[in-house]
Q: What sequence folds into this?
């Protein structure tokens, strides 16, 4: 089982790469040393709730997306959280609230 530090670090790395940001650029946005970003992404250090919020704002997401454990398929591809699926279908016009299911 992955630790919360590993989950948070992997999610931050994934979100950073999706935004095409280097660790140096993200460290500039967050006003922290790039070594700090590296340690967070590798799960070496824990971050405070305040820093989690800073990362979420800097990456243009919410704290839940950083905390959420993502499942991986056998081929290594990441299965996205359900909220991402909703957003994708809503932007394509294929989203139907009828099939939304229970939301937390």
A:
């Amino acid at each position: 089982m992955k630790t919360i530090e590993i989950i948070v670090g992997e999610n931050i790395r994934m979100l950073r790469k999706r935004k095409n940001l280097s660790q140096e650029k993200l460290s500039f946005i967050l006003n922290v040393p790039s070594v700090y970003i590296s340690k967070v992404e590798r799960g070496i250090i824990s971050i405070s709730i305040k820093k989690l919020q800073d990362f979420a704002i800097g990456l243009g997401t919410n704290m839940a997306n950083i905390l959420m454990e993502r499942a991986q398929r056998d081929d290594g591809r990441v299965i996205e959280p359900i909220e991402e699926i909703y957003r994708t279908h809503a932007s394509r016009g294929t989203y139907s609230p009828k099939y939304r299911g229970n939301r937390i």
